[in-house]
TrEMBL record:
It comes from Roseospirillum parvum. The gene is pfkA. The lineage of its organism: Bacteria, Pseudomonadati, Pseudomonadota, Alphaproteobacteria, Rhodospirillales. Mg(2+) binds at D115. It catalyses: beta-D-fructose 6-phosphate + ATP = beta-D-fructose 1,6-bisphosphate + ADP + H(+). GO terms for molecular function: 6-phosphofructokinase activity; AMP binding; ATP binding; diphosphate-fructose-6-phosphate 1-phosphotransferase activity; fructose-6-phosphate binding; identical protein binding; metal ion binding; monosaccharide binding. This is ATP-dependent 6-phosphofructokinase. ATP binds at G11, K77, G78, G114, D115, G116, S117. Homodimer or homotetramer. Its EC number is 2.7.1.11.
Length: 362
């Protein structure tokens, strides 16, 4: 290996720059390789002229480790196998990607992505016979094969901080405060930060709930003498009758959002004597400086990914298991999103605290 490519793909999160830094440190210092950073995910290799920049030790001398976002840029604009063209048609542009890789005379690629984006890039690499190693990142923490993905810890810290900030208002105004958090189809962020932030109700897509169950829990809290309550709801939670709560963005794209609003109205009807307010936290969960855990994870992943490349162990994703860094086959990691197990330990912990998590009555 002499020339290594690195790219970030899919939604940004805290800790991406820390991974890129670790990749460069290891590749340059230990192996003496050149590292090229591909801009805007797969687009950098598909665009002509090619969009990339050389990354060296100097690039990271200014504290990039501490910064949110990705210095390479990223996108989730379209699947290169079925790429949306300006005229409304779709084209297979996978060979543009492969051709871009070859034009840069790269020997291998480190891909920092979530479940969906890593799946796409791994198929692109397969197509071109490109040696790839994956690094899991996503605030949703829904990648198979790893206990943690980069960005998750910081997102949970942001949500916990938000609950710490909502609680005084809830207490002062005797209100029920609902916080809608991200997570796509999984409840990892909601359950982790709901426990950390002392929520009375945590709703996750993996467990069904009833509005009566929530109402009973809130009434119970009020009867205990506390005049306020906190509810955390994951964006992927459906309405009581099972409909998706989605909203259309300005560009017409359908995204999650709306379940918090739905709950606010539903609870206002059931608890007319209690004021209810909703906060939708949104992309705040993805930005900001990575916390200590994400920096540690990102650094471990970056170093290990380069070592896998050096050993010619392609088609693998670095992973965190049993208190250490390891790797798993990419096929195992990209089979689809990893949900929270409904009978998993954290749901038990939340219920042990008296939190309503659905199904079982409080
Ligand atoms: O996958 C990360 C994530 O932030 C999800 O939690 C959320 O549903 C989605 O991305 C938002 O996507 P976008 O930034 O494209 O609106």
């Amino acid at each position: 290996i002499r020339r290594l490519g690195v790219l970030t793909s899919g939604g940004d999160c805290a800790g991406l720059n820390a991974v890129i830094r670790a990749v460069v440190q290891r590749a340059v210092r230990t192996y003496g390789w050149k590292v090229l950073g591909i801009k805007d995910g797969t687009m950098g290799l598909m665009d002509r002229p090619l969009q990339y920049r050389e990354l060296d030790l100097e690039t990271f001398s200014g504290g990039v480790l501490r910064e949110g976002g990705t210095l390479l840029g990223t996108t989730n604009k379209g699947d290169p196998f079925n790429f949306p063209m300006p005229d409304g048609t779709f084209r297979d542009r996978s060979m543009d990607f492969v051709d871009g890789f070859n034009r840069l005379r790269l020997d291998a690629l480190v891909v920092i992505g979530g479940d969906g984006s890593m799946n796409i890039v791994s198929r692109l690499c397969e197509r071109g016979g490109i040696g790839m190693v994956g690094v899991p990142k996503t605030i949703d923490n829904d990648v198979h094969g790893t206990d943690y993905a980069v960005g998750f810890s910081t997102a949970c810290a942001v949500v916990t901080d938000a609950l710490d900030r909502l609680q005084p208002t809830a207490a002062s105004h005797h209100r029920v405060m609902i916080l809608e958090v991200m997570g796509r189809d999984a409840g990892h962020i909601a359950i982790n930060s709901g426990i950390a932030g002392g929520a009375d109700v945590i709703l996750i897509p993996e467990v069904g709930y009833t509005l009566d169950g929530i109402t009973r829990k809130i009434r119970g809290v009020l009867n205990e003498g506390r005049s306020h309550a906190l509810i955390v709801v994951a964006e992927g939670v459906r309405t009581e009758s099972g409909e998706k709560a989605t909203v259309a963005q300005a560009d017409g794209q359908i995204r999650y959002g709306g379940i918090g609003q739905y709950l606010t109205h539903a609870l206002a009807q059931r608890l007319p004597d209690v004021e209810t307010r909703v906060t939708v936290l949104g992309h705040v969960q993805r930005g900001g400086a990575p916390d200590a855990r994400d920096r540690m994870l990102a650094s471990s992943f970056g170093v290990h990914a380069v070592d896998l490349v050096a050993a010619g162990q392609f088609g693998r994703m670095v992973a965190w298991q049993n208190r250490g860094v390891t790797s798993v086959p990419l096929e195992e990691a990209t089979i689809g999103p990893r949900s929270l197990e409904p009978d998993g330990p954290l749901i038990g912990v939340a219920r042990g605290l008296g939190t309503y998590v659905g199904e079982e009555d409080p």
